């Protein structure tokens, strides 16, 4: 198995630093690290076949890291990420895309700017409050009837760390093996559907797999 890259949020790296610094939480943090590493070893890879992405110009939320959507849509994609290091990591994989350092809670685009939007395993990195703000912003910058395609993890654990290993098969048959890790927070297909609906979207397609889901929502 060839693992190209794993992305885990800085809270995990911080927790490692805190492990060294704070005696009190040392055991707890060490357990998190052990849990993370065991998930890395034990968990099965989830195969996600990306047959297509939306048409037209696309805003991709949290588009750094592997830059999966930018690798597919190329010059059609504006990839937004709030971390420069994630953009730097992805940029060379799709230099034709537009790379923008920004928080998706506050997008510097006029209303009805983009044809469609995507988010590939990015919302699992957001708090519930941030998810709502981001979905409302995406709704605002989408043209009428624009679609928001969301791929993300189903997370049942509220504490500890969560990790998902992914084998993404792109439309040109390129295979990207990667993994996304985060400090655990409950996230279900229903909670995500509700967030989209509360932001104004109508959810039209629902695909529920064991460890991840896909939702297609329309403005
Ligand atoms: C798993 S990573 C990258 C996944 C990416 N879509 C890919 O193709 O590999 C999730 C990304 O979401 C970004 N992110 C999280 N919250 C964000 C926000 N509010 N605005 C913009 N980017 C955000 C993180 O910086 C991170 O790069």
Structure description:
This protein is of the alpha/beta class and 219 residues long. The protein has helices at residues 10-21, 26-42, 68-73, 84-91, 128-141, 189-198; strands spanning 5-8, 46-49, 58-61, 77-81, 98-101, 114-120, 142-153, 161-169, 175-183, 202-208, 212-218. The chain has a single domain (45-218), classed as Rossmann fold. Helix 1 (10-21) crosses helix 2 (26-42). The longest helix is centred in the N-terminal third of the chain and has 17 residues, at 26-42. The termini are far apart. Residues 7, 62-68, 80-83, 86, 103-105, 120-122, 125-126, 130, 134, 180 line the site of S-adenosylmethionine.
Describe the secondary structure blueprint for this structure.
Blueprint: E1 5-8, H1 10-21, H2 26-42, E2 46-49, E3 58-61, H3 68-73, E4 77-81, H4 84-91, E5 98-101, E6 114-120, H5 128-141, E7 142-153, E8 161-169, E9 175-183, H6 189-198, E10 202-208, E11 212-218
Parallel strand pairs: 1-9, 2-8, 3-4, 3-6, 4-5, 6-7
Antiparallel strand pairs: 7-11, 8-9, 10-11
Helix pairs in contact: 1-2
Task: Quickly describe the structure.
The chain has helices at residues 10-21, 26-42, 68-73, 84-91, 128-141, 189-198; strands spanning 5-8, 46-49, 58-61, 77-81, 98-101, 114-120, 142-153, 161-169, 175-183, 202-208, 212-218. It has 219 residues and is α/β, with parallel strands linked by helices. It starts with a strand and ends with a strand.
């Amino acid at each position: 198995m060839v693992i190209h890259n794993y992305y885990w949020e800085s809270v995990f790296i911080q927790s490692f630093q805190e492990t060294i610094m704070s005696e009190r939480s040392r055991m707890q943090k060490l357990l998190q690290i052990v849990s993370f590493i065991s998930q890395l070893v034990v968990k099965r890879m989830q195969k996600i076949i990306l047959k297509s992405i939306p048409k037209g110009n696309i805003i991709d939320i949290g588009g750094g890291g592997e830059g999966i959507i930018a690798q597919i849509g190329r010059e059609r994609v504006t990839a937004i990420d709030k971390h420069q290091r994630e953009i730097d990591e992805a940029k060379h994989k799709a230099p034709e895309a537009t790379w923008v350092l920004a928080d998706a809670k506050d997008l510097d685009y006029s209303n009805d700017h983009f044809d469609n939007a995507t988010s590939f395993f990015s919302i699992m990195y957001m708090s519930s409050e941030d998810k709502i703000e981001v979905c409302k912003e995406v709704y605002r910058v989408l043209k009428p009837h624009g679609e928001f395609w969301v791929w993300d993890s189903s997370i049942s654990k509220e504490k500890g760390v969560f990790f998902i290993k992914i084998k993404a098969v792109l439309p040109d048959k390129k295979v990207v093996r990667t993994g996304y890790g985060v400090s655990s927070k409950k996230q279900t297909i229903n909670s995500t559907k509700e967030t989209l609906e509360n932001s104004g979207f109508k959810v039209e397609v629902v695909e529920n797999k064991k460890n991840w889901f896909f939702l297609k929502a329309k403005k």
